[in-house]
């Protein structure tokens, strides 16, 4: 975000003399599936302006619109005075995760009639955990996962099923008979990294698993300890 901040700031000041930040802007374009390149119908988009103040961006509402049945859109956008950066937020659901893209105003004006945005589809992902060891009695396991540096628990809701002891404070299992299943979704064709932290006999061991979740495949990671 800091790199983007510096780039956007430099670009904005460079072009400030020839860009008006008031009035309206007619924007047109399409929202496409990254994998199939087909239009995504009825996708809701929220626009916010980002105004630089005290070395940080302050968001302000601009408006919202939806794509038509073919994934195209046409919208008259109100420009906010003093805003040289705009954020397009693509509302998520069970098919696509929430995502966003930031565009500086000069680029937005230049490409206003042929904007294209690509979204990554969500796909089922399962994590299975089982404790086989009987000693020590109180070893502790933590688990977390990320895709594109996005915390998996914030990307999509999860369902946790415990056939043994339940975890404490999120995904932390302490001793006992552990047999749990986490069902969720992640980004298709993107690497998902699962991090296991096992505390046993006073020592901490970190184990990383990587999975590329694909269509029509049983995307599942098993961990036994």
Care to describe what's here?
A hairpin with a 2-residue loop joins strand 9 and strand 10. With about 220 residues, the chain is mainly beta. Helix content is about 10%, strand content about 50%. It has 2 domains: about 120 residues, Immunoglobulin-like (Sandwich), CATH 2.60.40.2190; about 100 residues, Sandwich (Immunoglobulin-like). The two termini are about 40 Å apart. The longest helix has 14 residues.
Strand and helix map with partners:
Layout (H helix, E strand, L loop, with lengths): L1 H14 L8 E10 L10 E10 L2 E11 L5 E7 L6 E6 L8 E6 H6 L4 E5 L2 E9 L9 E8 L2 E2 H4 L3 E4 L9 E3 L4 E9 L3 E10 L2 E10 L7 E5 L1
Parallel strand pairs: 1-7, 8-16
Antiparallel strand pairs: 1-4, 2-3, 2-5, 5-6, 8-13, 9-10, 9-12, 9-14, 11-13, 14-15
List keywords for this structure.
225 residues, mainly beta, Immunoglobulin-like, four-stranded antiparallel beta sheet, 51% strand
Note the gap between the termini.
38 Å
CATH architecture of the largest domain: Sandwich
Order of helices and strands: HEEEEEEHEEEEHEEEEEE
CATH third-level topology of the largest domain: Immunoglobulin-like
Main β-sheet description: 5 strands, antiparallel
The number of helical runs is: 3
Mean pLDDT: 91
Assembly state here?
A: single chain
Q: Rg, please?
A: 22 Å
Q: Portion of residues in helices?
A: 10-25%
Q: Which ranges are low-confidence, i.e. pLDDT below 50, for 5 or more consecutive residues?
A: none
Hey, roughly how much beta strand do the residues contain? over 45%
β-strand number: 16
Structural class by secondary-structure content: mainly beta
CATH level 1 class label of the largest domain: Mainly Beta
What's the overall geometry? elongated
Number of spatially distinct domains:
2
């Amino acid at each position: 975000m800091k790199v983007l901040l510096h780039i956007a700031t430099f670009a904005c000041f460079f072009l400030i003399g020839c860009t008006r930040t008031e009035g309206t802007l007619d924007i047109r374009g399409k929202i496409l599936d990254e994998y199939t390149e087909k239009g995504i119908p009825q996708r809701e988009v929220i626009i916010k302006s980002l105004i630089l103040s005290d070395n940080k961006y302050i968001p302000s509402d601009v408006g919202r619109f939806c794509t038509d049945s073919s994934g195209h859109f046409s919208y008259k956008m109100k420009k906010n005075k003093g805003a040289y950066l705009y954020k397009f937020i693509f509302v998520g659901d069970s098919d696509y995760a929430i995502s966003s893209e930031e565009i500086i105003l000069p680029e937005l004006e230049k490409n206003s009639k042929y904007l294209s945005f690509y979204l990554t589809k969500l796909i089922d992902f399962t994590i299975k955990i089982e404790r086989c060891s009987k000693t020590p009695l109180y070893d502790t396991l933590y688990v977390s996962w990320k895709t594109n540096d996005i915390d998996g628990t914030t990307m999509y809701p999860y369902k946790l099923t415990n056939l043994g002891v339940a975890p404490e404070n999120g995904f932390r299992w302490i001793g006992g008979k552990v047999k749990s299943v986490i069902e969720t979704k992640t980004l298709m064709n993107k690497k998902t990294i699962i991090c296991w932290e096992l505390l046993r006999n006073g020592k901490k061991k970190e184990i990383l698993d990587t999975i590329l979740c694909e269509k029509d495949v049983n995307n599942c990671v098993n961990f036994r300890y």
